[in-house]
Amino acid sequence: MLTTAPDIEVLARFGRALADPIRCRLLLALREAPAYPSDLADALAISRTRLSNHLACLRDCGLVSAVPDGRRTRYELADHRLGHALDDLRAAVVAVEADRTCPDAERDGCC
Fold it and tell me: Its Gene Ontology molecular function terms (predicted)?
């Protein structure tokens, strides 16, 4: 199977989004259920400003959607298959040795 540039870009964006532990926690929380920013900030014990920056990154990466709900905005995974992908990644990562780190773990960036 031939890999195309769009395929590589999608995977790279997903990887950049997962490179930050807060964004990982956000995706896992939204995997469980859609949520409002104030609830997510409380659940993750981070400031709303910091949460907003991470949600913007995940939106820009195409991984979460902002859904207007009256005067509030609810966030959810952009596609239900992302929940399955997160489950598959979590299962696959179990095979990685706990004492190993990724050489690029120091770098942080957004999509």
Answer: cadmium ion sensor activity; DNA binding; DNA-binding transcription factor activity; lead ion binding
